[in-house]
Design brief:
Mean pLDDT: 82
CATH topology of one domain: minor pseudopilin epsh fold
CATH superfamily of one domain: minor pseudopilin epsh domain
Structural class: alpha+beta
Strand content: 15-25%
Number of strands: 8
CATH architecture of one domain: 3-Layer(bab) Sandwich
CATH class of one domain: Alpha Beta
Number of helices: 3
Shape: elongated
Order of helices and strands: HHHEEEEEEEE
Distance between the termini: 94 Å
Radius of gyration: 37 Å
């Protein structure tokens, strides 16, 4: 035996005791406890069902939120496209130096810009127009006219789907088009 070997061994035991948790300090606590092993093996059926129920509720809430956001985005996109078509009709009136018309078909939820094709709005979307009486040839058609100086007959178009509403305003004096969430 070398000199001082026992001292190092004793120091190792002290370090090992410091590193081990208190539960392993005495040898009796290392033996498995049958009662403890049965209780900590897993989750009960009730706990699993509760977690599954909470996940289902969270998924349903997220789905409702996403679907409402998509509906709002559809109405917003349709109103922005309609406003762009109105602006294009105004620009054509100025460039060509001739009156141009923008027609809306409320019954079929569609519109037609000057010289353009018929554009249908997304399904389930309602459309209404307020314009001059002379620009409403029948009960389901509305029209906004733009003049070569940039002015218009004015009015506003309302797009609605569910509770979401957007209003596209056309100023009569300037022909300016704006979109407002109403």
């Amino acid at each position: 035996m070398r000199l001082g070997f026992g001292n190092r061994d004793r120091g190792f035991d002290k370090a090992r005791k410091r590193l081990l948790p208190a539960a392993f300090a005495n040898s009796e606590s290392r033996l498995p406890n049958p009662r403890r092993a049965k209780r900590t093996r897993g989750f009960t059926l009730l706990e699993m069902l509760a977690v599954i129920l909470l996940i289902g509720i969270a998924a349903a809430a997220a789905a409702v939120s996403v679907s409402q956001g998509l509906a709002s985005a559809r109405v917003r996109a349709a109103s922005v496209e309609l406003a762009a078509a109105l602006r294009a009709t105004r620009a054509q009136a100025i460039v060509k130096g001739q009156q141009q018309t923008f027609d809306l078909d409320i019954k079929n939820a569609s519109y037609r810009a000057a010289g353009g094709k018929q554009v249908a709005l997304p399904e389930g979307m309602r459309l209404s127009i307020t314009s001059a009486r002379e620009d409403q040839p029948d009960d389901h058609t509305g029209r906004i006219r733009f003049f070569p100086d940039g002015s218009s007959t004015g009015g506003h178009v309302v797009l609605q789907q569910g509770e979401r509403r957007w209003r596209v305003n056309v100023a009569w004096l300037t022909g300016a088009v704006s979109v407002v969430n109403s």
